[in-house]
Each structure stands twice: as structure tokens, then as C-alpha cells.
């Protein structure tokens, strides 16, 4: 009997595997509210340790905490996770969401910046404190309360995020920015003050401030999803729960969206027909409006939001 010779050596197979792991990327999103006495010092420390690690994305540091979304090689996941959990005593229990990057790259560079706030909010007389926020809910409790008439679910994302995907029957506060949403939030929810209110956003960072504001305004029964939609989806998959989030998640990177279910909620801005297209910016740089447009209208209007913008190109 003839022996079959190895076509590929073990070392070559190992190199191929390592190359695959290194080039397979995941997106991490994380935040932690805590007082930082010297944000510049922390920023310098992060920058020093992340350079030359093939890490892309953005990280914001302020006196009120840290907030980041980064794309990393899969093979560096444990290293990066441990690094951020050890940069401060307050980050040891920081929750880190992750998703697998698919076909499109999420980021093309790394930006680490100092900001006044990790999530912008300018409410008069409101001093945010992370220990005065709402009660956390996991996926099991979210599903348990989902059809309970005493609970109201509120989407704390912008209108363009809500239009591509959301929890069924959840309320949306019409706004272009989170700052605008916060200003409207107490008045918008006044009629639901006697109900139990569940807020949700993509990763949880916005709901920390929103629930704290509602408690400051006298709302007593306030909840939010721990880790946001991303954490909820991970849990329903892990424990085989029913998923009540439908459509896509809008993400603030070059992917623009992440498909969760085949449900389509978005409509073309021009013909008003339902479309699975992702958001684009108007090709007219003097407009640069963010909108959804079907392929047919996009060809007709040269990727502009309207005929007027197209004629001004």
C-alpha cells in the first residue's frame, strides 16, 4: 500500500490558521461612567499601549468616563479586553460588547480624543450621577415584560436609527440628536409616568444618562437594558430566547448597519416604497443629508436627496 504524502506541512497549516485569526476582525463597544481626574494622562496611556496593534476605531475620554467602539484582530480580543478592564479600578467590571465584522470594514483609522462629556447632554440644573440611574434588565426580563401592559418600551436612539430597526411597538422620540431627545424626554413621557418605563439604545451608554434624568424629573419606575440592544441580541442567541428586536441596527461606522432579521421598516425618501438599502449622504456636499434611498431613485437622482440638490451638483 502506498503512503499518501502530505501536500501541506503542519507549519504551513499553522501559519494559514494564524493569518486567518489575525485578519478576522471583531468590533468592540464599551463604556464606563466614572470620575477621571486627569483625562489627558489616561488618553496618553491608552494611545501608548494601542499603537502598532492594528486597532481601528474611536475612543473618547472625559472627566466623566470612557466610551469607545473599536475594530480589532480577533486574535487580540483577550489582550484588548483585559487591557481596558485594567486601566482603572472602576473599569474592572466594565461590560464589553462585541460583534463579528463581516464583509465591510467598520473603521479605517484610530482616533482617541478628549471630550467634555462622553455623551453630550446640556440639561439645566441636571448633574448626572451614574449611581442614580435606572434598574438594569437582562434579556430574560425584557422578554418577560415585553407584552405586559404596565410596561412601556422607549427607543433612545435617533430617528434615523429607529427607522431601520427597533423593538415592536416601542416608542420613538423624534429627534436628530441625543441632546435634543433628552430635552424632550420628560415631557414626552409625562402621560406614562404611572407606568414602568424601559429605555433602550444600541450599547447602553445613552440610557445611563436618560434614566438618571427621568429619575431626577420625578419618574420612579425606570428601567433600561443592560448593555443595550447588542447585549440583548447576544443573550437571546446564547439562551435561545425569542428575539423581539426586528430589522437592522444602525451603527456609527463605515458599515452603517448590521442586519438582525429580514424585516424591512425603512422607506425610500423619494418614492416612499419599502427598501432594504442602507443610509447614504446626499452627494451634494452643501446638503450632505443622511437618508435612505432605493436603488432606482438613487440612479435617477445621482445619489442626491432631491432633484434640487442634483441640479446644483
UniProtKB/TrEMBL annotation:
Residues 147-237 form the Rhodanese domain. GO terms for biological process: tRNA modification. Its EC number is 1.14.-.-. GO terms for molecular function: oxidoreductase activity, acting on paired donors, with incorporation or reduction of molecular oxygen. It catalyses: uridine(34) in tRNA + AH2 + O2 = 5-hydroxyuridine(34) in tRNA + A + H2O. Keywords: Oxidoreductase, tRNA processing. Coiled coil: none annotated. It comes from the Bacteria. Catalyzes oxygen-dependent 5-hydroxyuridine (ho5U) modification at position 34 in tRNAs, the first step in 5-carboxymethoxyuridine (cmo5U) biosynthesis. May be part of an alternate pathway, which is able to bypass cmo5U biogenesis in a subset of tRNAs under aerobic conditions. Belongs to the TrhO family. This is tRNA uridine(34) hydroxylase. It comes from Buchnera aphidicola (Cinara piceae). The lineage of its organism: Bacteria, Pseudomonadati, Pseudomonadota, Gammaproteobacteria, Enterobacterales.
Amino acid at each position: 500500500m502506498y503512503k499518501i504524502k502530505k501536500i501541506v506541512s503542519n507549519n504551513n497549516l499553522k501559519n494559514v490558521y494564524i493569518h486567518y485569526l489575525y485578519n478576522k476582525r471583531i468590533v468592540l463597544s464599551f463604556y464606563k461612567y466614572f470620575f477621571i481626574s486627569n483625562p489627558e494622562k489616561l488618553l496618553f496611556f491608552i494611545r501608548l499601549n494601542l499603537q502598532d496593534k492594528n486597532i481601528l476605531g474611536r475612543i473618547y475620554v472625559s472627566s466623566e468616563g470612557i466610551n469607545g467602539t473599536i475594530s480589532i484582530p480577533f486574535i487580540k480580543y483577550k489582550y484588548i479586553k483585559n487591557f481596558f478592564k485594567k486601566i482603572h479600578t472602576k473599569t474592572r467590571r466594565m461590560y464589553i460588547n462585541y460583534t463579528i465584522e463581516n464583509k465591510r470594514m467598520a473603521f479605517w483609522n484610530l482616533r482617541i480624543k478628549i471630550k467634555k462629556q462622553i455623551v453630550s447632554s446640556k440639561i439645566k440644573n441636571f448633574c448626572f450621577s451614574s449611581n442614580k440611574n435606572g434598574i438594569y434588565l437582562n434579556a430574560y426580563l425584557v422578554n418577560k415584560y415585553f407584552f405586559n401592559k404596565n410596561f412601556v418600551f422607549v427607543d433612545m436612539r435617533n430617528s434615523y436609527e429607529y427607522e431601520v430597526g427597533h423593538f415592536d411597538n416601542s416608542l420613538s422620540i423624534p429627534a436628530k440628536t441625543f441632546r435634543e431627545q433628552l430635552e424632550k424626554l420628560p415631557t414626552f413621557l409625562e402621560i406614562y409616568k404611572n407606568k414602568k418605563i424601559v429605555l433602550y439604545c444600541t450599547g447602553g451608554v445613552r440610557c445611563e444618562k436618560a434614566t438618571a434624568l427621568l429619575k431626577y424629573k420625578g419618574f420612579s419606575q425606570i428601567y433600561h437594558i443592560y448593555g443595550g440592544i447588542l447585549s440583548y441580541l447576544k443573550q437571546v442567541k446564547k439562551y435561545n430566547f425569542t428575539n423581539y428586536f426586528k430589522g437592522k441596527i444602525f451603527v456609527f461606522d463605515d458599515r452603517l448597519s448590521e442586519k438582525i432579521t429580514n424585516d424591512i421598516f425603512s422607506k425610500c425618501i423619494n418614492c416612499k416604497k419599502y427598501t432594504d438599502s442602507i443610509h447614504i449622504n446626499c452627494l451634494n456636499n452643501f446638503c450632505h443629508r443622511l437618508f435612505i434611498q432605493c436603488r432606482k431613485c438613487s440612479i435617477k437622482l445621482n445619489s442626491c436627496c432631491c432633484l434640487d440638490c442634483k441640479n446644483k451638483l
